[in-house]
Structure formats: structure tokens, C-alpha cells
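new request in #modeling-help
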Amino acid sequence: MIRAERKEREFNARRAEILEKAEKIFAAKSFHDVKMAEIANASGFSIGSLYQFFTGKEDLYTTMVSEKLDFIFSEIRKSTETAKGLIDMLETLIDAHLQFVENNSDFLLLFIKGEKVTLSESMTELHQRLTDSYQKHITFIENLLKGGMETGLLRNLPLRDMAESLFYLIRMASVRWMLMPTKESPRSKKGFILDIFLNGVKNHDK
Amino acid sequence: MIRAERKEREFNARRAEILEKAEKIFAAKSFHDVKMAEIANASGFSIGSLYQFFTGKEDLYTTMVSEKLDFIFSEIRKSTETAKGLIDMLETLIDAHLQFVENNSDFLLLFIKGEKVTLSESMTELHQRLTDSYQKHITFIENLLKGGMETGLLRNLPLRDMAESLFYLIRMASVRWMLMPTKESPRSKKGFILDIFLNGVKNHDK
Amino acid sequence: MIRAERKEREFNARRAEILEKAEKIFAAKSFHDVKMAEIANASGFSIGSLYQFFTGKEDLYTTMVSEKLDFIFSEIRKSTETAKGLIDMLETLIDAHLQFVENNSDFLLLFIKGEKVTLSESMTELHQRLTDSYQKHITFIENLLKGGMETGLLRNLPLRDMAESLFYLIRMASVRWMLMPTKESPRSKKGFILDIFLNGVKNHDK
Amino acid sequence: MIRAERKEREFNARRAEILEKAEKIFAAKSFHDVKMAEIANASGFSIGSLYQFFTGKEDLYTTMVSEKLDFIFSEIRKSTETAKGLIDMLETLIDAHLQFVENNSDFLLLFIKGEKVTLSESMTELHQRLTDSYQKHITFIENLLKGGMETGLLRNLPLRDMAESLFYLIRMASVRWMLMPTKESPRSKKGFILDIFLNGVKNHDK
DNA sequence: AATGAATGAGTATTCATTCAT
DNA sequence: TATGAATGAATACTCATTCAT
């Protein structure tokens, strides 16, 4: 039935709107300093309506965090689709990642500055969801690197260690920029990261 | 006056005792789930007495966190004193770091799992203290690497980037082990880290 | 117009259906634990429709309680219609009352266990309606007893005191059974009640 | 230690003071209409202090109700101590009961008018405590009557039935007076109750 | 007539901190 | 100095009722 479809679309649109406003608010204060009334007000809904979309404040928070992180990771991965060749792909991956950092530093600071709370039971679930997002991303990088290993470009090192090493080198640049933002974009570190990583893992004998 | 000295010694001993018990408690629960009464009880002091040593709960928490982290970093640095040569020093540094991770995972999980809170005003101060600890450590690593650069062993790359890269590679192994502890010590990753880092930064032309 | 009649019949049938389901629900939980949505669901109506039959939750509750109590009292009285003679009538009255207790204990426990609430304004109205039901019933018993007094069988005692005494002796057996239900029917107390009441009020000189 | 004793005395005095004020307040409104802040205010304590004496609102309410009822029943029983002979004792018992009704009608209306709430879990406990108080009282009456049965004054009827019959006859007069207070004291019904009860249960053959 | 999504007022309870003893 | 009883501010969530469709 078309009417049910429209309802669902509207429901999702409203839900997204709340999530969007909530992101801004949670980015600015700690969990405990954010009031439900504030989110309700900012998103143009009544307090009661918030509870039609989320089971409570913790659910609203954890949903926002995990969906947003999922989105960012998946966009980063999507960016590599047009690249040709391993090195080009890695370069694109690093660049896209740093660009998202630059554009979403308010949100990502939630993770860096520890502006999270232990959300009793929800925390376990959130932690699991974040870990899943991360693992999915690491696996994607592993698959990129696997190609390079097969062609002999890369040394025969543990895939996961390599993939996480790249991720943490990107993280280094991300965190530095987020904590000490400079006029220069974090993307300027792309070259260094690619250089040190490739030299670190490539086959120098060839 | 000798009496004043003894008093100060006793004061410091009691303060340290509180901090030690607090560490265990904060490691097990979130900041908001820890009650002052619990810390008072565990450390054998009255609630009121806690306020003779710390100005409040946040002060107690931030003091504990920053002093402990300071201690760990400084112990790691101290471990390199007996090593000879850059590579030996780096190897020792990595090994000592991973060993501290292995022995203090409860405490360090406070940082990894985001089980921190935004402590309104204190947060700024804590964040500053943690950043200072970190910078001091990074500077120490920079100085190690500077030697290698001067001898031509290492390429002419930005010192800070190199130092932080090493730190983040160690962090990669630390976090992985803390979130998914295995029987195998995190120290088993020492070789990989040293390998990829040195290959990444060394002068291959020589 | 016949159509208006049918409409009214249907209206009353629906209303009765809601009342019937509500009785079961209110019998199982306290007023505040019963949700309008639950009643709507159980009776197959939408929430909004409930408000076509009752002005609100309190009205629904008070209507249910008073109509049901009215019905029970009137059925008890009706049962005496076929009895001949005072003693037979009293015996029938007691028996019918205890039988209704046995068959409606869930509902009647609302009164006994105090599982009622003070319904702000409605309470006054409900209380009045319940009192009216009770007074009507007591008056009926008074009229039975008046006959016995006129024939000299009963002593010349205040009618109301006598009537209420009988009612409270029945209540004693009712409450005991409802709070501590036994396999034995509460009707087994009929003999005792009749005995003690008649001995209490009859004319022993005759 | 004398200091501990004084502390306990003071604790109990404060607790009693809260209970006393709470009784007046709960007598005037329904459970849900009474605010903790109101009780705190009326008793001269801070809100937080209330929670040092009681675990919560329900505990405060149930404690007040059950302790007060216990007190009233035990005072009624105590009044019979000076009476000589069964009939004198029963007369004293009835009189004392009705006098307490007259003096505590606000409190006792809590039971009559159903101004109670279903206090989730606490309700079960409260109900049990009230039942225990009641049973204790009925047992006391049974023991009085047992003497009369042994001397042959009373007929050989079930003790519990007799005892509860007397209690419900007193209740009849109590409820009537509480719902329709007259200038005349409920104690004026003492004669009628004693008359009808004794005639009902005594041995007329003797 | 029927629906059910949206509303928003209202309150018990916790716990860091204080300060009289 | 040490104690721990007293304080009181601060907020998520529920659900009866309404009214646009």
C-alpha cells in the first residue's frame, strides 16, 4: 500500500532530523549535560515524540553515534571505487579519510576526547556496534592490501597487522589535527602516511 | 622541623593509598557509577577526609588518571636508559610500552573504551595534563630518532611525524590486545612494529 | 425511527463490551497500572473510540464499578422473590450474596483489598453512587425485617442497625473467603450467619 | 555506649515526627497527590533526609499505615486489662474500639474509602502486615470468648466465626459513623452491638 | 465516525559536598 | 583533625487526551 510507504518515509525523515540535531548537541556537551528537552526543542518535536523514535536518551545517543560512524566509514570506502591500482586506491583512501576528519571533527572528537559515557547496558551494545564498524573497515583495507601482496609489491606480512597499521597512521594525523587544528588541512599529511606505510610494507628487493 | 616532614610523609602516603584504591574502582565502573562513599570505604578513610586530600571527586579522578599515566610514560622512558644504539633503544621502548599495556590494561581501558566523562571544567585541565604527558613522551622519542637521522640511518623526515607514527603503531598493537586479549602477550608484536617502522623511515639508499 | 433505535442498541452493546473487558483488566491491576491503550486493544476499539463512550479513564472506571455493583445487589435482591416467609427470605438473601461473592471475587477484591484510588473529583461521585447502591440494598433488607418485627418474631430494635448488622455478618464471611479462599464455598457460612443473626435479634420471650 | 543510645533515641524521635506529619497529609489526599517535598516541608526535614529514615515514598506510606494500625489495635486490647468478667471485657473492648474510631477517623478513612493505592511490590507486604495486625487482634478476641464458652455462658460455636462477627459488628458502627458522622458519638452503638452479639452467641437454655 | 500520532505536564530520587560536633 | 548526617538541585520518562485526517 502506497500510504504505508509514505508513512514510513516520513517516519524515517523525522528520525533522521532528530539524529542530525542531536549530533550537533552531543558534539558540544557531554552526554549528561544534554537534556532531552533540548533535543526536542532543537528538532522541533515534543519531548514525547522523541520516545516514538527512540526508546530513551541512551538509545538516541548510541544510534546517532553508530549510524554516523557507519556512514563515514562506508563513504570512505566508496571513494576508492574509481581508483585504479593499489597505490592509487590507498592514496584515495587516506585522502578521503582525512577529508572526513576535516569535515566532521566535532563529531569525531566525541571519540578522541573521551566525551563518551559508560551507558550502563547500552554501552556494551554501542561498543559492539562500533567495533563491528571498525572491523568491517579493516577488512576492506585488508582486501586492498591482499591484491598488492599477490602481485609481489608488498611483503608477505600479516594482513591484519598491515591494515591496522595504515589505519593507525591515518589516525595519528587525524588526532593531531583535531586536537591542534591548523589552517593546513590534515590532508597535507597524506604524502607522509603513504610514504612511510609503503616503505614499511613494500618489497624492497624487487 | 622534623615533625613537619613526618607529617608530610604521612600525608603523601595516605593520598597515595586513596589514589591506589580509586584506580581499581574507576577501572571497574564509569565515573558516574563510582560513589565517594565507596572510595572512602575502600581506602579506610571517612568521606570528609577525602576532601582534605582532593578538592572533590573530579579532582580525585583527574589526579589519579594523570599521575598514573605520567608514571607509566616515565617508566617506559626509563627502561631505555640501559640500551645501546638506536635500534636497541627503539626495541626496548616498544617492548616496555607493550609490557605496561599488558600489566595495566584495566587502567588503560579507561582511555580506549571511552569510559571517561566530560568533566565540565576539570576536563579541560585533565585534557591539558594528559596532552602534556603525551607531548613529553613524543619529544623523548623525537630525540631518540634525531640521533638516527644524524647518523644517516633514518631518512630526513619530520621528526614529530616519525615519533608519533611509532607511537601509533605501538598503540595499534596495544588497543588490539586490550580489546581482544589473547594468551599471547602484546609484546609478540614488537618485531612487526619495529620492522614496519624502520623500513618505513630508514634510508634504503645506504 | 427504527434506524435510530438500532444505532442505540449497537451503541449500548459496544459500551457493554468495553465495560466487560475493562472489568477483567481493572480486576488484575491497580487503576494507575491500567492503560487506556490496553482497554482499547482488549475490546477491539481504537483509543479514540473509547472517548465516544466515556469521558475519560476515570469515568470508564467509575461507571464499570458502580454498574457492576448495582447489578450484583439487584440480582441478590431478585433472588428473594420466590422465597416464602421471613426466615426463608433471609436464608435466600444470605445464600445469594455469598454465591455472588464466590463468583465475582476478582471484581469484589477491588473493594476489599483497597485496590482503588482516590479519583480526585470522580471519587466523590463514585463514592456517592456506591453509597446509593448500598443504601438501596440496606433499605431492602430493612423492609424484609420490618415484616418480622410486625409479627413479633423480631425484637423491637432499630431497623437500620439490624439490617446493617446482617449485611456486615455476610461481609465478614465474604471477606474471609476472598482473602483466604478455601475449597469450601463461602455459602457454607450461611447457617452460622443466620443462626447468630436470628438469635441476636429475635424475640426470645415468645 | 551512652552516645550511641542517645543517637538512636534521636533517630527514632525524628522518624516518629515524620510519620506523624505524613499521617495527616496522607489522610487528606491520595497517595499520588502527596509529594515528598510536602512531607519534608511539613516535618521540617530536607527531602534527602527523608531517605535516611525510609527507603522511599512507598516505604514511608506503608510504614505509617501499618505502625499506626498496630498501635490502635494494641491500645484497644490494652484497655480490657482492667475489666473483670467476660461481659465487662467485651463492653470495654467495643467501647475502646469505637472511641479510637471517633478519634482517628481521618486515618481510618484511608481504609474505608479505599484511599489506598496498589503499591506494586510494597502493596503485598503492606497487605500482609495489615493482615497480621488483624489476625492478632482476632486471636485476642477469640481468647476472651473462649473463657465464656468454657463457663457455659456462650454456645459452642466456632471461636473464629464468633470473634470476627463481633469485629464486623463493631466495624458496621464504625463505618457508618465515619461515612456519616453525627454529633452523637459512635460509642452510643455500644449497647446495641453488645446486645445483638451476646443474644446471638449466648446459651439461651441456661 | 474512526483513527492513533503527537503532546507536555509533572516528581521521586541520588549523591557530591558541607560543617557542626 | 576527623567524622558522617544533612542538604537540595536537577531531569528522564509516561500516558491520558486531543484532533487533523
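bot summary: Residues 115-119 of chain D have pLDDT under 50 and may be disordered.
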